[in-house]
Structures are given as C-alpha cells and as structure tokens.
Amino acid sequence: MKQPIIYFDNYMLRDVELKDAKDMFEYGKDLETVKFLSWGPYSDVTEAYGSIREFFLKRPERGLPVGYAIVDLKNDKMIGTIDFHTMISEGVVEVGFCLNKAYWNKGIMSKSLQKILEVGFYYHGFNKIIIGHANENLQSMRVIEKNNFIFEYEDHKKYYNRFTGLNEPSKWYYLTKETFKK
Predict the structure, then answer these.
(1) Structural domain boundaries in the chain
(2) Which residues share a beta bridge with 171?
(3) Which long-range contacts (CB under 8 A, 24 or more apart) does 178-182 make?
(4) Which of 69, 78, 85, 146 lies 20 to 30 angstroms, CA to CA, from 3?
C-alpha cells in the first residue's frame, strides 16, 4: 500500500525503507526522544533495521500503509517517522510520530501531521483518526492541538510507562473527515 510522496518546506514524506535504519538508530538511541514511546532506546543499528522490517514493512499485511519517513531534503537524512500504526476498527486508525531531537521546535512535526491527515482522509479514505499522548508529553500535546484534534477522554490504563512499570494518565483525541475539513 504505497502512499503519495509529500513535499513541504525543505522536507519530504515518503514510505519508510530499510535504508533508513542508520538514521532511525541515530534518534532511536536517544532516551529523551523515545521516553514516551513503546520502543527504544536502541542499543545498535540492527534494532532499528528490525523495527523497519518487522513493524513498518509488515503493516500492509494488516491493511495499513507502511508509514512515512520524514526526510530533511538538505542532507537526504531521515529525521523521523509519522504513521498510521494501528487499525482500531474499519476506517478508524491511530496515528503516531517520532522526531530526531535535533529537529524539535521547528514546526516540522505539526506540518507532517497536517500532511498525513490529508493523506489519511483523502487518499486512504479513513473516516476517523485518533491520537494520544502521555499527560507529561507536552510537546506532543502541542502538535496535536495545532492540528485541531478534538479532545475525547483521559485514560488511566492505556499508556504503560515501560520505565516506571506503571500505567499512567494519557489524553486521547480524534478527528473525522468532517471535523478535519472545518
């Protein structure tokens, strides 16, 4: 399930490929970058390669697109991912993202999310896209709010912090094609 290549500013969204493993390892080994995610930190590049092979590239088997690599066109470097990683029900998907810390606070993820929402609703035909963040993850909250997601609920069991071993509060949001158009 190929996706359209998207260009904005000095960046490109294209399907994740095995050749991205070195760049994914670079940011995936950083604890601060992955502390709210369900994976990492990586200890060597083979883990990043395995993630791409086993998770990203196998998504079409589950009816999902591979996922986008966010590429800095100035140096042809993969700096993050943004993807529909879970099919909740027919036409309802969850989106997630990760970005190399060197690129934080530049608006890249907010624009990447805007672009993948367009692809999700108008190319893939999804009806509803959901997203969540750990309550402490204020950077993700800002990206979500900038894209006009609608707050739906707070959950105290869904987000498992693998570092503390505890389920911690998370906030969940959604957009439908109709609310996205507004």
Answers:
(1) 6-181
(2) 133, 154
(3) 179/148, 179/150, 180/117, 180/121, 180/129, 180/148, 182/148
(4) 146
CA distance 40 to 7: 28
Residues 47, 28: Cα–Cα separation, whole Å: 9
- Average pLDDT rounded to a whole number, residues 97-108: 96
Q: What is the DSSP string of the chain?
A: -----EEETTEEEEE--GGGHHHHHHHHT-HHHHTTSSS---SSHHHHHHHIIIIITTGGGGT----EEEEETTTTEEEEEEEEEEEEETTEEEEEEEE-GGGTTSSHHHHHHHHHHHIIIIIS--SEEEEEEETT-HHHHHHHHHTTPEEEEEEEEEEEETTTTEEEEEEEEEEEHHHHH-
Whether the pLDDT of residue 32 is over 90: the answer is no
pTM of structure:
0.93
